């Protein structure tokens, strides 16, 4: 199923080809600058910046969505664990002021020191992190979308 509707992620208009998952209150998109293979984002459909602004129903749906998505990306990207991360507010590393969960497949030894993953998460504007092409992101979203036939956008 193709998701026709685009959404905003903070100030960024997200093309439908980047979106692979939709629930009542959340959507899943592939990452422009992933820090590991399969690093995706689960975003609140309502464009609020802070976690505390979500209703209980939105929190529940967002995390249930992250659980479904985590199961799929861990398997598809040959992970053995997941990092599930919320950077809630600018001083916690949030660069896009719109509530989102990072879901990142993890493998043994992928970061030498585990907490260095947070350094990499915070290097989003670093020149080493080249944005991916629209085609590469669309191909990944197409593959992931196959796992979510019940998508609702
Ligand atoms: W934060 O620093 O707000 O916790 O995370 C922002 C995330 O959003 C980063 O992983 C970054 O790569 C990603 N990102 C920024 N702009 C886009 C975009 N247009 N499409 C997809 N991902 C994006």
Automatic annotation (TrEMBL):
* Top-level EC class as recorded in UniProt: hydrolase
Catalytic positions?
A: 100
InterPro entries recorded for this chain?
Bis(5'-adenosyl)-TPase_reg (IPR051884), FHIT (IPR039383), Histidine_triad_CS (IPR019808), HIT-like (IPR011146), HIT-like_sf (IPR036265)
Molecular-function GO term, any one: nucleotide binding
The keyword Membrane appears for this protein: no
Residue numbers marked as site, Important for induction of apoptosis: 118
User: What is the E.C. number?
Assistant: 3.6.1.29
* Pfam families named in the record: HIT
The listed location of motif Histidine triad motif is: 98-102
- Report the PROSITE patterns cross-referenced here: HIT_1, HIT_2
**Which protein, by its recorded name, is this?**
Bis(5'-adenosyl)-triphosphatase
**Residues bound to substrate:** 12, 31, 87, 93-96, 102
Q: Which reaction does it catalyse?
A: P(1),P(3)-bis(5'-adenosyl) triphosphate + H2O = AMP + ADP + 2 H(+)
> Which keywords does this Swiss-Prot/TrEMBL entry list?
Hydrolase, Nucleotide-binding
Domain HIT spans what residues?
6-113
List cofactor names only: Mn(2+)
């Amino acid at each position: 199923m193709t998701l026709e509707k685009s959404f905003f992620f903070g100030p960024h208009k997200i093309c439908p080809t980047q979106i692979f998952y939709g629930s009542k209150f959340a959507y899943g998109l592939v990452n422009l600058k992933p820090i590991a293979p399969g690093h995706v984002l689960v975003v609140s459909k309502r464009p609020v910046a802070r976690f505390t602004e979500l209703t209980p129903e939105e929190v529940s749906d967002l995390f249930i969505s992250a659980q479904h998505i985590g199961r799929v990306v861990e398997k598809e990207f040959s992970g053995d664990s997941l990092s599930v991360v919320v950077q809630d507010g600018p001083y916690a590393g949030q660069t896009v002021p719109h509530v989102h969960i990072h879901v990142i497949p993890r493998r043994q030894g992928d970061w030498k020191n585990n907490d260095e993953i947070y350094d990499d998460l915070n290097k989003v504007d670093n020149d080493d992190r080249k944005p991916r092409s629209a085609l590469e992101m669309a191909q990944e979203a197409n593959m992931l979308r196959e796992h979510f036939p019940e998508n609702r956008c």
